[in-house]
Amino acid sequence: MYIIIKTLKYATNLWPYYIGVTLSSILVALTGIAIPFILAAATNLMVDVVRGGQADVSGALWLAVALFGFDIANTLIRNYGGYLGDVMSVKLKAQLSTRYYEHLLKLPQSYYDGELTGTIINRLNRAINEVSNFLNMFANNFFQMLLTTFITVIIVWIYSWELALLIVVIYPLFLWLTALTSKKWQKLQTEKNLEVDIASGRFAEVVAQIKVVKSYIQEKLEHRHFRRRYHKTVMLTREQSKYWHVMDVVRGFVLSAIFFLIFAFIFVQTVEQKFTIGEMVLLITLINALRLPLFSMSFIVDQFQRAITGAKDFVVAMELAPEIQDKPQAHNLEVDKGYIEYKEVNFGYNHDHTILNNVSFAINPGEKVALVGESGEGKTTLSNLLMRLYEPQSGEISIDGTNINVVTQNSLRRQIATVFQDPALFSGTIRENIAYAHPRASHAQVVVAAKAANAHSFIEKLDNGYDSEIGERGIKLSGGQKQRIAIARAILKDAPILILDEATSSLDSRAEHLVQEALDRLMKGRTTLIIAHRLSTIAHVDKIVTIKNGTVDEVGVPSDLAQTNGIYAQLLQLQMGATDAAKKKLKTYDISA
């Protein structure tokens, strides 16, 4: 129960609903308990009449009216409590979902590098659904059952401590028998959750890359992998369910035996005239009312265990502390010139293997600098470190002499615009995607950015212009169109520093010309870090930084580096060669001629 309470700490503002549900449950329990007393009184009245007593018609009618009143009150209060429970459940689900999403957005890039998208989504749905469903069931059923049981035990104790003791024994005995089952049940449930998470993660990947699946004719392979995961969940469920229900039969036999003792005791005591007929009816009615909830407790415990398993996933995710946090005295970064400096930067995605070793270089204000090196040498990592998506293990990165570790992440990223090789667009309209950099931008500002990105002309030709839906990841647009939308977004941001994972490497010549023209406008007057993929682009930068074995090999202008025997000079020589070996070597540098 502790893990459930820990989960509820993320929704403490719902206390009015918790109180309302609690009060409703108390009233439902009290009105429910009142009914057996009325039935007992009516029974005694009838027994008196049978024994020759005077017929009390008005008394009988008043008892009927009381029965009707408590019955109606019980129905109204139970349904009002159910309404509060339903609203509480959906509010709890909404709030936990929102808090989870908010927390995920704060987690570093490294968290997403190690998790499948579908797994993250599935964990959210399963954990929060199971917790909110259990609490809804708890509010509408289980809590009332606990209150009814507590009150019943007190009433029965007044008549017979032996009966009360038998009732009290049932609960710890049932819980002990259930605890014997729970450890194995939760282990199997965790295995099932893992299989479903993996299947869901792969499902999301396949849907996102369906063209690859179809082009390689691997639909059957993907379906087979997916089916295998769910087949394993079926096998685990069979084992889990068989084990649970066998143990439930054992629990049922034990409960039946105890109820047999209880009813036998009541009947004998009544025959011996220690209980009146009315008291017998009262006790049987009260205790029998506990019978159904007790036998259905297996379902409640089943839901409870699912909630615990889900809550563990939720709490573990929520307690992940972001590795990158603003310092207590962090201030906003204001870029005046745009001078960037890397000083002896060391970094690795794990402590056993470093990618960057004592990397040092500077980018002057307004300068265009290209990073060149073989694939995996850390070119993209250097740009990610500048945006503080990761932290260097040692060394310093500064902008205008200010260490980026001492400024707020938001203010840092506000000063940097990015254009990726793969344009990252969202489903929605063209206007929304361009304005993603500045959601409050006017239509005129969006159009100006689109024109500067050479995108306005093709946007106007679309049926709905800037309000045209582009589909998931911009699937309805061509590669060149998507890149121009991404560039327009960066132009609208109007940041003094630009990171450019060169966006023309996979385009045809016409699209490349339009995109390159837009990039030239974007780079003008901005300090630009380029992850180069084309030799033609490298030749027109102000400075080249070559990376070799995770460290800086050369720094210089293209004309100077062309005369050395370094990486850039070798690339130029490879460009002259038409052999397969030369082309293969260029590919290791992610470079195309």
Structural key phrases:
ABC transporter transmembrane region fold, 593 residues, 21 helices
Can you give a write-up of this model?
The chain starts with a helix and ends in a 5-residue tail after the last helix. The protein has a domain of 317 residues: ABC transporter type 1, transmembrane domain (ABC transporter transmembrane region fold). It is an alpha/beta fold and 593 residues long. The longest helix has 53 residues. Helix 2 packs parallel to helix 5, helix 3 packs antiparallel against helix 5 and helix 5 crosses helix 10. The protein has 21 helices and ten strands. The protein is elongated. The chain is 64% helix and 9% strand. The strands form two sheets. A six-stranded mixed beta sheet has the order 6-7-8-3-9-10, sandwiched between helices. The mean pLDDT is 81.
Number of helices: 21
Count the E strands: 10
Q: Note the main sheet.
A: 6 strands, mixed
Question: Which residues form runs of ≥5 with pLDDT under 50?
Answer: none
What percentage of the residues does DSSP assign to strands (E)? 5-15%
Instruction: Give the proportion of residues in helices.
Output: 55-70%
CATH superfamily of the domain at 2-318: ABC transporter type 1, transmembrane domain
CATH architecture of the domain at 2-318: Up-down Bundle
Question: Which strands sit side by side, in order, in the main sheet?
Answer: 6-7-8-3-9-10
* Termini gap: 63 Å
Write down the CATH class of the domain at 2-318.
Mainly Alpha
| Backbone CA Rg | 36 Å
What structural class is derived from the secondary structure elements? alpha/beta
Overall pLDDT score: 81
CATH topological fold name of the domain at 2-318? ABC transporter transmembrane region fold
Gross morphology is: elongated
